[in-house]
């Protein structure tokens, strides 16, 4: 077949945020699809969302109901979602009850009834809910060959009428191999509900999709007042794009620290601020955002351990106004604490805000809070997921500052409890040291991937205006241990 002979398959937008990306650009038009899963998994809601997104009076949607919820009861609940449009009922979206035909007649009669309705309306989308009920009713007096013939003829008729079809059913994964429904289907979507301790996590898998490549694996999704929203896993999988050698340096807002960083934070980098409790990690992060706002750069703060108003109030106590920038749309403080979060969901929300506001700076405060907000099953893959998230966000040109707490042992210089320091382009370490009977704070730049940086260990203080960098600490040995000794007390090793 030559390139000129190939048929271009149009893509049907599903109307479900994130799902088109998982499908590789949308659902192949006129395809014959199965939506399967356990009860309460969101199958009908997903189908309704696709129906209302695509149905028009000229090309309506036919929704066949079979022995399950009556259409009136189903609509009572579906109308709570924002995608539901009552103006489309009985014009663009039509419900047909097949219960009587299924109960009293055979598969041939069911097929004839569906064909009659399709020929009369020329629908763009056809849904049979639940198709599993049709099969169960027919199985008693029908052989496997007859059942497969019925499904094939149904698919042929609906495809020839240029309808995109969804058959909904409550199936188990063990049926995939032998059930003729799955053999005929062009697309197979499986919806899962998983209980993880006290959390319930919803996941979606595209098990089959003819004619195009979909994103493999399990994708989390959530059902909210907007309907189904999916969170693709494909963000950040291909790694970071090459960064220019000469990049703008962003001032961090802490006097004296830009010089230690070699001129500021390289734009598009991910910087990790590591330190114990009370060392000023969040203060530094607030100064980084405040400096961006002062320069006209929109920012985002993703928090997990306090409410946005509390975060803004703490910044105000340091002389930083975060309230007005929020009103002006220059600052977005995102509170992510549902206790069943996935990293992909957080990434989607952040990227949506970046696209909407043009944000240039992002603070994640803190990684420990982020991990605790995740459903238990996602914590196992936290490092891998964080890598994808950092890659996805920095590719948009956003500079990230993340905070992470470590416990001071006064025996080693720990950089992260998650072994994720390699994910960061730059690392700043804050720590306590004991000098002359006092607990003092020191700061050091551990690495800046884009270039050289200061090797000094400097004392700093947290003032009413934030962090202030002091002089380089000299005259001591072992500052990185937290228990330094004056150099004049260090006894030199004897010469051989």
From TrEMBL:
InterPro entries: Circadian_clock_KaiC-rel, KaiC, KaiC-like_dom, KaiC_dom, P-loop_NTPase. Its EC number is 2.7.11.1. The keyword Transport does not apply. The keyword Transferase applies. SUPFAM superfamilies: P-loop containing nucleoside triphosphate hydrolases. Gene3D superfamilies: P-loop containing nucleotide triphosphate hydrolases. This is non-specific serine/threonine protein kinase. It comes from Frigoriglobus tundricola.
